[in-house]
Amino acid sequence: MNHRIPSNLLAPAVRMRVGAEWVGPESRATTQVINPATGETIAEVPVAIDDDAQAALEAARRAQPGWAALPQVERARRLGRVAGLVRADSERLARLVSLEVGKPMRESRFEIDGWTAGFFDYFASFGRAATGEILPSDNRGEEVAIRKVPYGVCVGITPWNFPSAMPARKLAPALLAGNAMVVKPSSTTPLSALALAEILEQAGIPAGVVSVLSGPGGRLGDALVRNPITQLVTLTGSVSAGKQILAAAAGNVTVVSLELGGKAPFIVMDDVDVDSAARHALTARFQNNGQVCTCNERIYVHRRIYERFLERYVALARRLKVGDPFDEATDLGPKITRVELEKIEAMVARAREQGAQVATGGKRAEVPGFEGGFWYEPTVLTGVRNDMEVMQEELFGPVSPVMAFDDFDEALALANDCRFGLSAYFFCNNARTVQRFIEGCDFGELYVNKIGPEQLHGHHAGYRSSGIMGDDGTHGLDKYSRRRTAYTSWREHTAADLMPARP
Question: Which domains does the chain have, with CATH numbers?
Fold first, then answer.
């Protein structure tokens, strides 16, 4: 094992949770988990088979009624216990995130404390929230009651870029609403989700209510989504994965929620502080090495300040430190896999062929002592056009194209000219122009004179190819319930009440 990995960070055998059982690599084929900073294998996890998917779903179906029968306030208490246990073990869990994703430790700590524990804390606060409504009836002695009831068994499919926070984002509201869930984390980064499964057990979540199955996603995801036991599927992932999920769910008319890719525009008007805007743009672009669906993916700067902004932005990008995720001074870690690294290289190469210029970066980074890792330099591109691939397709890496515009209408049109519709950023000090942006920007999540991340009580949702439905806040909680309407009468009825009188 690499000397940079603490000896107590990984268990001797990494096991997955299948219903009430912990299944280890000794009884299944395995897949390797790679440290992206070194290219070395750090763990082998079991590969779930179709029988595991079936067993997990059946266990969830058996366990869910008892879980839903608990008072909502009791379910909330157990979510609170999860949050407490996460925070008590936060440093180990953060190191696990940095190990399997490669993100700097300060970002991993925020993922654990701010989001993983935060989601459970936030949804635990709904222990006594209303779960329905009473409506007046058109008739005497009657009432109309609309109740929120759980779907039953849900499937959560989560990505590699936030391996602890994304399972928590789905599990916390689903469990509070009374559902059971089978989680399928990315096979690239399964360790954090499996660690969370252990914490859920310690917190008193009954066996079978949550399963976490590891292994490659195609066949396993299909087995979970197509199964008639599954009543709701929630995916955070790529557009191609979302389309596959929709097709697979159609056979059983299963409810699907999708949070897919993004191509966030970052518009800078000419009345702002250039240094501040550049610093905000840098953070929004390069956090988690650009591997965030809400990242600043394309910058549009008013022509009057374009040169000043670009000079400052490039200078800031050159100061970013690329290196060891466990070094507290590191700003950027590695790309997640060699395939993702090569994808970024290819996109930059095509942009240059189409006329883009590299202002800084543009090649693999050399990090002494980490020669086997998947490193790429912070890169800024100029001379781009809005029809280029780097301006239309998700980069998901440390590459930042910058383009000038002449007026607000042009900037808004450039921003909206995209198949994605998740997040958008706007820096401007004119209130009327800000309002025009809010009304006209066709994206689900807008940041004005600030950057993210999104907040627990907001609503994280995209338009078009960025997804269906959304997460977080009261609307994210509502997603995990359906409505049941009861028409109730408590007065005696006569025959005349039931049949129309004859003439």
Answer: 37-260+466-485 (3.40.605.10), 264-448 (3.40.309.10)
